[in-house]
Design brief:
By secondary structure, this protein is an alpha+beta fold. 22% of the residues lie in helices and 37% in strands.
Length: 156
């Protein structure tokens, strides 16, 4: 089978443009409906800065992001009835957080002073600000951390 260079180029452009579009927004689903939120808007909202020990990188990492509570309060009008918040990654990994309003969750948009990209497990990561007394060498203690978040759903 013979493909022209132009056809192959066109297919690459179509495939890559879809990937770029997926990385430019995050979907928020609430009982009221669904919306696309610009990653640029989230990055501009990123006012929480701290250094955390990242058990997956086995290093202290300076991060910046949006507190989950602030995100939900800003974008989800019906957040007061939320019983949990669900996160779905680009690879369809899914986590549901029932104590979403504990103040311990951060939507990370920047690491080491740079915007997260897909190759950095971004563009958004869900992490905990305080690891508590969990052993950071046991990565199963951190199954509720989510990389490459594409959808956030407020559940009632």
């Amino acid at each position: 089978m013979h493909f022209s260079k132009h056809l192959i180029f066109l297919l690459l452009v179509i495939c890559c443009s879809g990937l770029l579009a997926d990385e430019s927004t995050v979907t928020l689903k609430t009982p009221s409906g669904e919306m696309q939120i610009s990653l640029n808007e989230l990055r501009e909202m990123a006012g929480s800065e701290l250094e955390i020990y990242d058990p997956f990188q086995r290093a202290n990492v300076p991060v910046r992001g949006v507190d989950l509570i602030a995100f939900i309060e800003h974008f989800a009008a019906d957040h007061r009835q939320a019983s949990a918040v669900s996160f779905i990654a680009m690879d369809d990994y899914k986590v549901q957080i029932s104590q979403w309003d504990s103040g311990n969750w951060l939507l990370v948009t920047h690491e080491n002073g740079h915007e997260l990209r897909l190759r950095d497990h971004g563009p958004i990561k869900l992490i905990e600000k305080n690891l508590g007394n969990r052993n950071p060498t046991n990565l199963r203690n951190f199954n509720d951390w989510v990389w490459m978040v594409k959808t956030i759903e407020v559940l009632q």
